[in-house]
């Protein structure tokens, strides 16, 4: 189809019995709670008031996991240094 034919087809008046497109109601900008899926406002929170305790539990788990990983890396580095010192000391 040429460009003018497409415009003519898209601008064509629908036949009398054809269903017209229904207007959709306006939906306010929103997002959904990460835990229960309830609609919430766009004000920085990712959870509804009902799921506040669940969010707190998850945040404490995340912070505990970060601390564990940090101290585990320190432990691995310390063991590696001890291993290198032991190897150097064995050659003396």
Task: Please provide a written account of the structure.
This protein has about 90 residues and is mainly α. It has one domain (about 25-90). Helix content is about 50%, strand content about 5%. It has two helices and two strands, in the order H-E-E-H. Strands 1-2 form a two-stranded antiparallel ribbon. It is elongated.
The H-and-E topology, N to C, reads as HEEH
Q: What is the CA-atom radius of gyration, in angstroms?
A: 31 Å
Number of strands: 2
Oligomer: single chain
Q: What share of residues is helical?
A: 40-55%
> Number of helical segments?
2
Parts with pLDDT < 50 across at least 5 consecutive residues: none
Largest sheet: 2 strands, antiparallel
Give the helix/strand class.
mainly alpha
**Strand order, sheet with most strands:** 1-2
- What is the strand content? under 5%
Count of distinct structural domains: 1
Describe what is shown at a glance.
By secondary structure, the chain is mostly helical.
């Amino acid at each position: 189809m040429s460009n003018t034919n497409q415009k003519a087809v898209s601008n064509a008046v629908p036949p009398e019995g054809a269903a017209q497109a229904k207007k959709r109601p306006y939906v306010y900008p929103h997002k959904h709670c990460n835990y229960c899926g309830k609609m919430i406002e766009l004000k920085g929170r990712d959870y509804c008031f009902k799921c506040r305790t669940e969010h707190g539990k998850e945040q404490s788990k995340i912070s505990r996991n970060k601390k564990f990983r940090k101290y585990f890396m320190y432990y691995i580095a310390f063991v590696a240094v001890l291993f290198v010192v032991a190897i150097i000391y064995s050659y003396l």
